[in-house]
Each structure stands twice: as structure tokens, then as C-alpha cells.
Amino acid sequence: MAFTKICKKNHNTLFSALKSKGFTHIRFVFVASNITNGKKQTFFIEFYFINPSISPKRAVLFSEAKASQGLLPSYCAVRCGTLGRGGKELFKYCTLSEVIFDKKTGNLQMGAFTLTDDVLIGSVSEPAGNFDWNLQYEKQIIKAPEASSSKFAWNSDGVKTVVGGVLHFNGEEYQAVPNVSFGYSDFSCGTEFSSPWYHVSACNLVSTINSKQLSNSCFSVQKIGKDKYIVYVKLEGKVFCLKSGFLFRRKAVQCSCIESIDESGSRQLHWSSNLHIGKYVVDIDIYCHESSMYFRDFDHPDGIALSNVLSGGTGVGEVRYYKKNSRTKTLEIVEDARVTDALCEYGNDKKL
User: Fold this and answer.
1) Is 117 exposed, middle or buried (CB count within 10 Å of its CB: 0-12, 13-18, 19+)?
2) What share of the chain is helix, strand, coil (3-state, %, to 5)?
3) Residue 189's beta-bridge partner residues?
4) Could you read off the pLDDT of 107-133 as tens digits, one per residue?
5) How far apart are CA 12 and CA 327, in angstroms?
6) I want to staple 163 with a disulfide (CB 3.0 to 4.6 A). Which of 30, 72, 129, 342 is the partner?
7) Using omega within 30 degrees of 0 as the cis cutoff, is the peptide bond preceding 196 cis?
8) What does the DSSP assignment read for 165-189?
9) 1 pLDDT exceeds 60?
10) What was the pLDDT predicted at 162?
11) Considering just the CA atoms, what is the radius of gyration of the chain in Å?
């Protein structure tokens, strides 16, 4: 019931003041395997709404709005594709008149696309490629982290989301299997994106202490405003959730993203998050090669800027969880987990 309420709250935002001055972003990221060769691939499916009620019967894209003084972008869109080396992104634009929303159930219908509390169905075909999917999903987080600033709000009730079903991408068939889909989903909305954009999350964790898959573990770090982050970490039943940048917590969370060079000389980005809460310390370090990432643009509602975000779905690294020894005052390791298939994003606003 809690998941249903959160989902309805998310979808109802589409019919708030943001429909004429703002954006809403719903996304799913997961791993599926090629049924022919077994190769893993990270996929994403997103619903993006920007000022949809300004032009409810004709999609006004950013390029048109930029060329016409006083015109704002206004459309609904499905963005989908793959993350990783050679990743691709496909688009399907719709208008608000094509959207059917059931306030009672929270179900969303956009032409050939269906989003409910547990189903994702749709297809996109364009010169750049084709993608169709018929998926079931379940969000497996008991308490959803929510946070907001004056112009941006973020809600992740799906830091761990299991996904199952069949999808086809550019002529290849893939199978998403729930216990190895390592899915993630979240919801964000507002009048502008946080900048710099910072996000990292994963639920594919394996203990380096006992080599066991940590099936009840996940984490997500999201920037929500100037020097404000929210960190959610769940490690086998132990939960840490902390918002930084607020009174008395300015130094409780330290986050950064820097470029580095790996042992082979390849360029990579390094996401680092350090969390201090009571007698516990959590360190998150995730790396992703630049060659396995690509830039994605997200239009701003004002029509004069966009967020240029470097995105990847193959991040690797570690999450370490320490407890302070009350007698010796030293940090003692409780868990050290190896992370793979992490969603990694970093970017800045670009004025046009």
C-alpha cells in the first residue's frame, strides 16, 4: 500500500502547477541479458514532461522554442536506450492530449506506452534504432528517501527495483530476470535541475568479507541543491539516510566527482561520498570509464538552458561501512562490499 501511495503522489505532480511551468522526470534503469550470447546490457526507460499544458495538442521542442522569442518548450516524451560502451538513446515525443491519467489507480497511458505500479509496456522506432519492452517490476524499499530544495524535488522509492520480462533492442532479444536485473527507479520534478548534477546508485553488491551477494543492500546519492545532497544506504538491514547542507549537518556528507586515470592509463570519473552519522562512517567510491559513458541533454523549462549530463551504467567500486570503537576511538570495518552495474551521472547546466 505504501508503494501505491508514493506512486500516486508522483504521478499527481503531472497535474499540478508544474504542468505549465516545470518538469517531471520518471525513470527506470536495469540490467538484461542477450538471449543469444548471454551478454549483459544496462537499459533505461524514462518519461519526461516539460511544460506540457502550454501546448497540449502540439509538441514544441527545445530547438523551436529557442528560435522563437517568447515560446517555451512544451512536450511529453519517452526516452529510452542503453548505457555503457556504444550506448544509444531513442526518443518518442507526445502531447498532453495523448496522455491518459487515472487519478484513482495512478496508471499512465501515453499512446503505445503504459506505466502502472507494476508494469512497463511500450515501443519506440526511429531511424536511429528500435526498442520495445513488456516488463513487470517491483520496488523493494521499505522507506523511500525524499528530498527537495526550492526548485528541485527528488523521490526514490525504487533504489532497489526488480525487473522481469522481455525486450527487443535493434533486432536483438533480451531477458530481464528479477534477481539479477539490479534495477533502479526514481522520480524528480521542479522548475530547474540541480547544478552541477550529481547522482550515483547501485544494488549489485557483493561482500568482500564473505564473498556473498548482499541481496538486501543498495545505495543512492543525489544532489538536490547548492551544497545539498541526500544519501541513502542500506546494507543488509542497516539503513543510513541523511540530508546534507542543512543546519548542523553541513559536514556530515562530503561528495565529489573528479577525473582520474586508472592503472592502464584510461580516463575515468570517480564519484566519492563520505557519510558521518553518529558512531558510523560510510564511504562510497565508484569509478566509470569515460569511454563507457556519453552525454545526455535535458531541456530546462525556461527554454534558454539545458543540463548536459555525462551518464553511465557500468560503474564499479566499493561501499565500506565502519563503526567507531567507543573504547579505542578507532574505526572498525563492519562491511566492505564490491559494487558493479552502478548508475553514474555528472553534468552542468549549459546556457544556449
Assistant:
1) middle
2) 10, 60, 30
3) 24, 153
4) 889 989 999 999 999 999 999 999 999
5) 51
6) 30
7) yes
8) EEEEETTEEEEE-GGG--EEEEEEE
9) no
10) 97
11) 20
In 10 A of CB 248, how many CB atoms? 6
Residue 311 has pLDDT above 50, yes or no: yes
- In 3D space, the residue among 99, 57, 49 whose CA is nearest the CA of residue 75 turns out to be 49
Nearest to 116 by CA among 97, 131, 99, 102: 102
Q: Which amino acid is at 140?
A: Q
If you ran DSSP here, which 8-state letter would residue 306 be given? E
Contact by Cβ (8 Å): 227, 245: yes
Q: Tell me: the pLDDT tens digits for 176-227?
A: 999 999 999 999 999 888 889 999 999 999 999 999 999 999 999 999 988 8
Residue 234 confidence (pLDDT) above 60: yes
State the pairing for strand pair 23-34/40-50.
Answer: antiparallel
For 242-268, write each residue's pLDDT tens digit: 887 654 455 588 899 999 888 888 899
Helices (H), 78-135: none
